[in-house]
Amino acid sequence: MTTPSEPETLRADRQILLALAPPHCDGLGLKHLVLAGLTWLETNHKAVNALNVFPVPDGDTGTNMLMTMQAAYAEIANSNEAHVSRVAHAVAHGALMGARGNSGVILSHIWRGFARGLGNEASFSAEALARALAQASDTAY
What we know:
Order of helices and strands: HHHHHH
Shape: globular
Helix content: over 70%
Distance between the termini: 61 Å
Largest sheet: none
Number of helices: 6
Structural class: mainly alpha
Strand content: under 5%
């Protein structure tokens, strides 16, 4: 019988920890998620433009959302803030200040609702994420 290598043991230990404690996302994790959303929009904004349906059929929804997300991310790009609600509020502020077109304004409202939904939390769990997303949806409507 062979004994597991150290990386295999560390991987197993990590899987056990993840199974026992629900994962949380802090401000640095949210920063990475915002960057992932921005990267997706950079890659796909033309496809979103081609949808040409929301909120007004003007053909620049993806571009406006991209510019809004660029402004939102710029607000936190140089931040090392670990407190998730502070990061979320900074993203919301950046999105509002850089909102372009109707779709950008709606996107900024989504971020504002998301930040409000987090309250003053230092990090969030899946349950808190669901609440923040529901608040984001309510705010946008």
